[in-house]
Design brief:
Length: 197
């Protein structure tokens, strides 16, 4: 009888020790780290941008994450025209349909010329073309080494006027001024810190 009692006591102690050492629930971790991503053991900013088209209909989202080499932009969208489309960061955080001219010009804090192929380029907001599938969908990731989500930096996307992501109707030729001859703006999303949402 005494042996059974001792075994029961030991079993209870083991259960209590395991419970104390268990990790927090996944939901709690996700809640704690919402708006951040771990890079080399440090919390870095991340945020979500929502795109609207000329009719103010949501057509996709982008996730921006700060990394050691720059800002990673992952976009997933649909209901876009198939083919190549210019994709840029613009220097105003306003997306007024249908023209999205409210988004201003390309983000260019270091006063460069437009385009990867221009000897005095590119703008900090210049990115590679989006390649949209025949079904109107796109899923792609880009690394922009010329910008940051860290505030108080000349390259920060969190400016007084804000910034935005814009998709154009045609491909960027990476050289023509001021925007690569990429045509009209067909989708736009404002870049807003998670803390401001």
């Amino acid at each position: 009888m005494r042996l059974i009692w001792k075994l029961s006591l030991i079993s209870c102690c083991v259960v209590i020790l395991i419970a104390c050492q268990s990790k927090p629930k996944v939901e709690e971790i996700a809640e704690e780290n919402e708006g951040y991503v771990e890079v080399d053991g440090k919390q870095k900013d991340k945020l979500t941008v929502t795109f609207i088209n000329e009719e103010e209909v949501e057509v996709g989202k982008a996730i921006l994450q700060e990394g050691n080499a720059g800002v990673e932009v992952t976009i997933e969208a649909d209901h876009l025209p198939a083919g190549s489309h210019g994709f840029h960061i613009h220097d105003k955080g306003i997306c007024e349909a249908p023209s999205f001219e409210s988004a201003g010009g390309h983000f260019n804090p270091t006063d460069k010329m437009h385009g990867f192929n221009h000897p005095d380029g590119p703008h900090a907001g210049d990115m590679e073309n989006l390649e949209v599938e025949k079904d109107g969908t796109v899923k792609a990731t880009f690394l922009n080494e010329k910008v940051t989500l860290q505030k108080d930096d000349i390259r920060s996307l969190f400016t007084e006027d804000g910034t935005s992501l814009v998709i154009h109707e045609k491909a960027d030729d990476y050289e023509s001024q001021p925007a690569g001859d990429a045509g009209d703006r067909i989708a736009c999303g404002v870049i807003v810190p998670e803390s401001s949402k």
